[in-house]
Amino acid sequence: MAIPTSQQLRGELNDDLSKAGSLPFAEVVNDSARKTFTTSQAGAVFEFAHKQPDREYWNGSKYYISGRRSRVRIRRTQIESV
What we know:
By secondary structure, the chain is α+β, with helices and mostly antiparallel strands.
């Protein structure tokens, strides 16, 4: 199995977030210098590392302007193999 590039991961994350809920997420941005993907939704910023420890979930952090922070897990869509 080939290791996905950060651009492929960004596309997969963007697709999964678009399916995640009723509130829309902003476009996922690839911050290659910090090796993270960032996006926002309803005043919160979501950050996911390029290297994910779990193939079943996107694991990341959710930040608010007030300084509060929480962890988030969003189920990944399984990649169909032929």
